[in-house]
Design a protein that fits this description.
The complex is a heterodimer of chains A (114) and B (118). Chain A is built from no helices and 11 strands. The radius of gyration of chain A is 14 Å and the shape is globular. Chain A starts with a strand and ends with a strand. Chain B has no helices and 11 strands. Chain B is globular and about 45 Å long. The chains are: A mainly beta (114), B mainly beta (118). The interface between A and B is medium-sized, with 23 and 27 residues.
């Protein structure tokens, strides 16, 4: 199918700890993946992306890992801060009808406690 | 990346009425995408709107229920017709943007329009 799912619906962490948000995807033909962050009352905001020919990509305080063997993505946030509290979505690019469209996963709510 | 403005930001609607959501982009874009986000859930693509052609709807969404206009390269509207409480959702407009890799299409989203149908 075209679904992208997540293992954990909610995640609570202490400020300063590292967070790991997981995602499973089902479309083995997908070659591009994106993580989005959605804060309350706002639209999703791009965090980081990765191509299928990569297994790791690092940004500022964030790392995305891709395991194509088991069709698994993860987003690691280092030294989690209160401002990281949001819902995080993984998404995959699906080419259909001659154009690319984004298919979103279920989302994980990250709650950061002081 | 493009700046997207949506109106209204929120509204409370009566059952059986229709509401049109407007999406304005600060740059010309070929394709615009409309998503629905039901309460506590993920985003689901409703349709893709190309300027000058009819919108392409995803499975489960039909033009009679969600008519879309795309009169120019910076504007689109989505109408939610004959609303029921099940249509209570956030409706988001998005446009493509450049990701980190050549050819990668990263969507930029508006803040969304939160509709509550009573």
């Amino acid at each position: 199918g075209e679904s992208v799912g997540l293992h954990l619906p909610t995640l609570s962490v202490q400020e300063g700890d590292n967070s790991i948000i997981n995602c499973a995807y089902s479309n083995s033909a997908s070659d591009y993946f994106i993580w989005y962050k959605q804060e309350s009352g706002k639209g999703p905001q791009f965090i980081i992306d990765i191509r299928s020919n990569m297994d790791k990509r690092q940004g500022q305080r964030v790392t995305v890992l891709l395991n194509k063997t088991v069709k698994h993505l993860s987003l690691q946030i280092a030294a989690t801060q209160p401002g990281d509290s949001a819902v995080y979505f993984c998404a995959e690019i699906l080419t259909s009808g001659g154009y690319n469209k984004l298919i979103f996963g279920a989302g994980t709510r990250l709650a950061v406690h002081p | 990346s493009a700046v997207i403005s949506q109106k209204p930001s929120r509204d409370i609607c009566q059952r059986g009425t229709s509401l049109t959501i407007q999406c304005q982009v600060d740059s010309q874009v070929t394709m615009m995408f409309w998503y629905r986000q039901q309460p506590g859930q993920s985003l689901t693509l409703i349709a893709t709107a190309n300027q000058g052609s009819e919108a392409t709807y995803e499975s489960g969404f039909v033009i009679d229920k969600f008519p879309i206009s795309r009169p120019n390269l910076t504007f689109s509207t989505l109408t939610v017709s004959n609303m029921s409480p099940e249509d209570s959702s956030i409706y988001l407009c998005s446009v493509g943007g450049r990701g980190s890799f050549s050819g990668a299409n990263v969507l930029t989203f508006g803040a969304g329009s939160r509709l509550t149908v009573l």
